[in-house]
Design goal:
Strand content: 15-25%
Radius of gyration: 25 Å
Strand order of the largest sheet: 4-3-5-6-8-7
Shape: globular
Mean pLDDT: 95
CATH class of the largest domain: Alpha Beta
CATH topology of the largest domain: Rossmann fold
Helix content: 25-40%
Number of helices: 24
Largest sheet: 6 strands, parallel
Number of domains: 3
Number of strands: 21
Length: about 600
């Protein structure tokens, strides 16, 4: 019969987490990011110190960005491992809500452990406590409820006996994966309890591969066999399933062209003859041509976000059908799709076996070659000696010096769309947070990628606006000697949204510094700023110098920040598609009326259901 061991609730939590293992014999929760404050320093802080390297602690600079690092780690690990994040009870906790939303949208596992108010309520209201005048059970941590896959408030030590397994159940469930929040009342953290010793026996968590229903497989086979021009939309589920080889085999054997979402990009090498790039708003010309003609759209691990679908105008063929292979029934049945609920790898194997030798081969190889020529043209170095480069030309510079182990990463602004259209990704060489398009993910995310894949060269594209929003984990990367390269494009404002503002008929207003209500135009020295945090920082004089500085960065054991001035005005002039951003219907100048007319014409082409 098992005995008991007396520990505080916080000590028990950390001991339990330290013995939750993957099938490869590693901790599923690698360790914990922590910023201590009122509500977690005495209980959780003491427990983390006591357990030491058995469950390591890492200090962050901002609760949101250290959570971003944990999310990037989990994404790079393909959801096979994760990290925890703890904060104080008030602003520290609410700082993490944005990160929780990011993880929720992207279906990524991270364990949030914010401190909470006193369960016994004796000292209420305590420092940083949010009081609801009509509900005594509410705390600031209730903000996590809509952005958590699983939420629990620990108000008694013994509640951990069910809450902790519940948390890992969700984080290791491929169909329901996402962030978990265990709001931990601060007095309960310090309360002792006699725990069963069996609770701390190591446990291995296996990530299952759900088999698709045979009836759904048969219906998928019938749809594909009856099609003339099918196209595959490869999403992030291909990568999380480890189904890259199955995707290549399925597409090649049946002659079906493939287009990639932001999350699915790099599942198939850009050099593969069936890879036609990305569809939709940030799509390649050849991919959007295929999408417009396809009579069957086969989604594999995608939730068909509006950028992928051109706000449901890109898949324009009359009578076209939608087939969606997805682990989550919620995603598989969107927009009237015929669902195949199951693991991507298994589903492709089952469907492929039933299709036999059926081939299509309807794609145009010349269109793909023309597209790559267009990419080479717009990413070439500027012809004029001192002209400010475009974002496309910056991408071209990085592309020319990239290696097979390079990971290009980004999150918000101009670069995500430009990279999806233009970056030629080697397998596994692309990391984009574009489900939530969260400014400030970039620097912390680059660190998380490098921590998960130290053998990879990580190149972070970040605009000056996003860098200004969240850059402090650069200091963490310096302290921990985590090397990666930041290419900081300075266009002196929010250039991406400024272009969208113009496209929607608006005046240039409040996006670029020159159009903002300021007395003095800022001249921000990003080199000095990055250097002050210990990074190696320098400014590139042009595209050739940028290439040379990226090569030199490979010899360093700290982050390198390379700043380059860019032109905020030009778009890509290649690829792209309409995006549904509502334009005011009345009250504006002629340019606004013209934009509204374009909006109404495009809206009329939307096909939400067939």
């Amino acid at each position: 019969m098992s005995g008991t061991v007396r520990l505080t609730a916080a000590q028990a939590m950390m001991r339990w987490l330290s013995v939750q293992m993957t099938e490869e014999g590693e901790r599923f929760i690698e360790g914990c990011w922590a910023i201590f404050g009122h509500g977690n320093v005495a209980g959780i802080g003491e427990a983390l110190h006591g357990i030491g390297d058995a469950f390591p602690t890492w200090r962050g600079q901002n609760e949101q960005t250290m959570a971003h690092a944990a999310i990037a780690y989990a994404k790079t690990m393909r959801r096979r491992r994760a990290q925890a994040v703890t904060s104080s009870i008030g602003p520290g906790a609410t700082n993490m809500v944005t990160a929780a939303a990011l993880a929720h949208v992207n279906r990524l596992p991270v364990l949030f452990i914010p401190g909470d108010v006193f369960a016994n309520r004796r000292p209420d209201p305590v420092l940083q406590q949010i009081e609801d005048f009509d509900d005594g059970t509410v705390s600031a941590n209730d903000c996590f409820r809509p952005v958590s896959r699983y939420f629990d408030r620990i108000q008694r030590p013994e509640q951990l006996l069910t809450a902790l397994p519940g948390a890992l159940r969700v984080m290791t469930d491929p169909a329901n994966c996402g962030p978990v929040t265990l709001a931990f009342c601060q007095d309960v953290q310090a309360e002792a309890y006699d725990w069963p010793e069996s609770f701390f026996e190591p446990k291995t968590w296996r990530i299952r591969r759900p088999e698709p229903d045979p009836v759904e497989v048969a219906e998928a086979v019938r749809l594909i066999a009856a099609a003339s021009r099918p196209v595959i939309v490869a999403g992030g589920g291909v990568l999380y399933s480890g189904a890259e080889a199955e995707l290549v085999d399925f597409a090649t054997r049946h002659g079906i062209p493939v287009v990639e979402t932001q999350a699915g990009k790099s599942a198939l090498s850009w050099e593969h003859e069936l890879n036609f790039g990305s569809p939709g708003v940030t799509g390649s010309a050849c991919a959007n041509e295929l999408a417009a003609r396809a009579d069957l759209v086969i989604g594999v691990g995608t939730r068909f976000q509006d950028f992928t679908t051109g706000s449901w105008t890109v898949f324009a063929e009359p009578g076209r059908k939608l087939l969606s292979i997805n682990l989550a029934g919620y995603d598989a049945q969107k927009h009237g799709a015929t669902p195949v609920v199951g693991d991507a790898r298994v589903a492709l194997q089952r469907i492929g076996a039933e299709l036999g030798d059926r081939r299509f081969d309807w794609h145009d190889p010349a269109a793909r070659r023309d597209w790559h020529e267009a990419v080479r043209h717009v990413t070439a170095a500027p012809a004029e000696g001192n002209a400010l480069p475009t974002d496309a030309q910056v991408i071209g510079a990085v592309q020319r010096v990239a290696r097979g182990n390079t990971v290009a990463m980004c999150a918000a602004g101009t670069m995500p769309g430009a990279l999806q259209v233009l970056w030629q990704a080697a397998p596994g060489g692309y990391h984009m947070e574009y489900g939530y398009s969260c400014m400030g993910y970039e620097v912390a995310g680059a660190m998380g990628i490098k921590l998960a894949a130290p053998e990879r060269e990580v190149i972070c594209f970040v605009g000056d606006g996003s860098y200004m929003m969240a850059n402090s984990e650069l200091a963490t990367a310096v302290m921990r000697r985590v090397p990666f390269t930041i290419v900081l494009t300075d266009n002196r404002g929010y250039g991406c949204i400024n272009r969208l503002q113009i496209e929607c008929g608006g005046a240039e207003f409040n996006n670029m510094y020159k159009d903002s209500n300021v007395e003095v135009q800022p001249e921000i020295d990003f080199v000095a700023h990055a250097a002050s945090m210990g990074a190696h920082a320098e400014k590139a004089s042009g595209i050739a110098d940028l290439e040379a500085k990226i090569l030199a960065a490979r010899s360093r054991d700290i982050p390198t920040v390379i700043v380059i001035d860019t032109d905020a005005v030009p778009g890509l002039d290649v690829g792209g598609h309409w995006w549904d951003v509502a334009v005011p219907q009345a009250g504006g100048p002629e340019r606004l009326r013209e934009a509204r007319a374009r909006y109404e014409a495009n809206s009329a082409r939307q096909r939400i259901f067939d």
